[in-house]
Specification:
With about 425 residues, the chain is α/β, with parallel strands linked by helices. Helices cover about 30% and strands about 20% of the residues. The strands form 4 sheets. Strands 1, 2, 3, 4, 5, 16, 17 and 18 form an 8-stranded mixed sheet that branches. A 5-stranded parallel sheet has the order 9-10-13-14-15. Helix 4 (about 160-175) packs across helix 7 (about 210-225). Bound molecules: zinc ion.
Length: about 425
């Protein structure tokens, strides 16, 4: 049994209960036992949170852990350590591993490995179709029974609308959300960055924003028709945000997430990094107009969560010509600092809303546990220092990969402690 822990003197923010006050938090037997001013607990370990903010543990809806199959890029253990360093107490693991997680046995492997080796909660996502081949549906009853919390063919999105319709209908039976990486692969074929003036100037093959928007429109219509829940992964275009907004307005069960990089960068970053594939990801960095539309979606509630799309790659996969490089960047360890530094400090986003987008927002979007500070509930808690200024240094990454375009950038506002089930699994001071 974990020792009692008293988090003393912090600003406690829990958007799920509209709490924003100076208070202590007492944890006993792994659970939150009291929240209030001037708490005393004989024999408890004390964490001095003066100057810090205490919130529910962050939840990442979109993580690539690479295990099984590409343990050279990341493992369940190292991905979980990266998550903890970024303030995340839970991550949802995408199924595009080797083998693809389309079966109860692979799901069980992930659940059991995580239980043994991961310092944060790991929620597996199963594949929509067998092998993510876009044709035959996986067995959702088995996936759910083994521990999957959603299904997705992220990375190899379902192109056939009939298959997607069947997936939504079948998933609804088991109350599983269908997460879609929205991309029309014919429209985007060969594209390595966003289509626009920058791709033309640089001569890099490109994919148009409409290749994402058209699939979001399809999914919203299919979710409406089947009365099922679709969750739009890493939304990045103005048209896609508009489609989700209209869908929500007429009662469609559609939720959406946005990544930190699509909120703070545009395709101008590809030019600024001078053909370095460190800015190559899928969906690609979009135009300033798209970035602003995603930001507006965050502010008006169209977008439910910020998710990292943490995509670790080896140096060999990333250091080559732009066209040939792998898509994706790591994100768990910089997500909070980046959003806090660029969005909150500039006044673009309220601190309470940022916390909500990392806690209650994702929990509610996919029906996950956590996301709130409640007496009697397991103590999953994040503590960050909004004034800590630190440079992003890849040598300090807990994850295995180093592919981040934010290296060497100084950011203000960092997680200082992460607590899972009452145990401090990360602390920087
Ligand atoms: Zn994706």
């Amino acid at each position: 049994m974990a020792q009692a822990l008293l988090i003393r003197g912090g600003r406690v923010i829990d958007p799920s209960s509209r709490l924003d006050t100076r208070a202590d938090v007492l944890i006993e037997d792994g659970r939150i036992s009291q929240i209030g001013p001037g708490l005393k607990a004989r024999g408890a370990e004390v964490f001095d949170a003066a100057g810090c903010v205490v919130t529910p543990g962050f939840i990442d809806l979109h993580t690539h852990l690479r295990e099984p199959g590409r343990e050279d890029k990341e493992t369940i253990a190292t991905g979980a350590r990266a998550a903890a360093a970024g303030g995340f107490t839970a991550v949802c693991a995408m199924p595009n591993t080797t083998p693809v997680n389309d079966s109860a046995s692979t799901t069980r492997f992930i659940v059991e490995t995580a239980k043994r080796e991961a310092i944060v909660h790991v929620y597996p996502i199963g594949a929509i179709t067998r092998g993510s081949n876009g044709e035959e549906l996986s067995e959702y009853a088995d996936l759910k029974a083994a521990g999957c919390i959603a299904v997705s063919d992220d990375g190899r999105p379902v192109q056939n609308a009939r298959v997607m319709r069947r997936a939504l209908e079948y998933a609804r039976t088991f109350n599983l959300p269908v997460i879609d990486h929205c991309e029309d692969l014919d429209l985007s074929k060969g594209g390595a960055m966003n289509e626009g003036p920058v791709s033309v100037a640089m001569g890099i093959p490109s994919a148009p924003a409409v290749s994402e928007t058209i699939m979001v429109e399809r999914d919203v219509l299919l979710a409406e028709y089947t009365r099922s829940h679709v969750h739009i992964a890493h939304i990045s275009t103005a048209g896609a945000v508009d489609a989700v907004r209209r869908g929500k307005a007429r009662g469609v069960r559609v939720t959406a997430e946005a990544t930190p990089h699509h909120l703070v960068l545009t395709d101008e970053a590809v030019r600024a990094h001078d053909y370095d594939p460190i800015t190559k990801m899928n969906p690609p960095l979009r135009s300033e107009e798209d970035r602003q539309a995603v930001m507006a979606g965050l502010l008006d509630g169209t977008i439910d969560a910020i998710a990292t799309d943490h995509a670790p790659h080896t140096t060999e996969d990333k250091v080559c010509e732009f066209d040939c490089a792998a898509f994706g960047i790591v994100g768990l360890e910089t997500a909070f600092a980046l959003c806090h530094d660029v969005l909150v400090r500039s006044g673009a986003l309220d601190l309470n809303r940022l916390v909500q987008l990392l806690t209650a927002g994702p929990a509610r979007a996919l029906g996950l546990p956590g996301g709130a500070l409640e007496k009697g509930r397991p103590a999953d808690i994040t503590i960050f220092d909004p004034a800590e200024s630190r440079k992003v240094e890849p040598e300090s990454f807990r994850g295995k990969s180093r592919n981040s375009p934010f290296v060497a950038r100084t950011l203000v506002g960092w997680p200082v402690a992460t607590i899972v089930d009452g145990v401090i699994v990360f602390r920087s001071r």
